[in-house]
Prior knowledge:
By secondary structure, the protein is mainly alpha-helical. The protein has helices at 6-29, 36-39, 58-82, 84-111.
Amino acid sequence: MLGEYLPILLFLAVSTVVGVSLLVLGGLLGPQRPESDKLSPYECGFEAFEDAHMQFDVRYYLIAILFIAFDLEIAFVFPWAVIFRSLGVVGLIEMGIFLGLLVLGFVYAWKKGALEWE
């Protein structure tokens, strides 16, 4: 049974060797001309004036979570659309309920002001 995994292990080994060897060859054979401008941090054309570890507003994460939730809707709608004809009316009603609940969640988030950005 383990013999069936031999092609996968061979593929992983070859790809690892190729990837590492390309990185090493690029580092050894590539041009090495360090300058102060190349080694300095770049941020919008001027010197950095704030700490890199600044805190984000909670609303940023809330918008990100809402985006993921509504984006995952497509993961359920696309397969449903592919086999729509074979599902019939029952599939249409079930997807209508799913999308209705999703719209209710969207309206709730909208009314609570979760989508407002100041």
